[in-house]
Design brief:
This protein is mainly beta and 72 residues long. It has one helix spanning 27-34; strands spanning 4-8, 11-16, 45-50, 58-62, 68-69. The protein is 11% helix and 33% strand. It has a 5-stranded mixed β-sheet with strand order 1-2-3-4-5, covered by helices on one side. The longest helix has 8 residues, at 27-34.
Length: 72
């Protein structure tokens, strides 16, 4: 799985581009990636860019428990 990890202001996020994945990302994938013991470790996953009818692109933000965040 190709990813980038960014760190700023005390938080770190894994960035995944949907076009780089060969399947849908699962809750288990997000939890495993965010695990600081068994994965890359992060405060969440930024998933995008994706298509949007309302703006240039959309972005989903997932918490380490795989729930979707409203904003960061």
């Amino acid at each position: 799985m190709k990813f980038t990890k960014y760190h700023a202001l005390g938080n770190d996020y894994i960035v995944l581009d949907p076009k780089d994945l060969d399947r849908e990302i699962s809750d288990a994938d997000i939890k495993a990636l965010c695990s600081r013991l068994y994965g890359v470790g992060s405060d969440g996953v930024l998933f995008g860019p994706s298509h949007s009818d309302h703006c240039d692109f959309s972005l989903k933000i997932f918490n380490p428990d795989a729930s979707e965040a409203e904003k960061s």
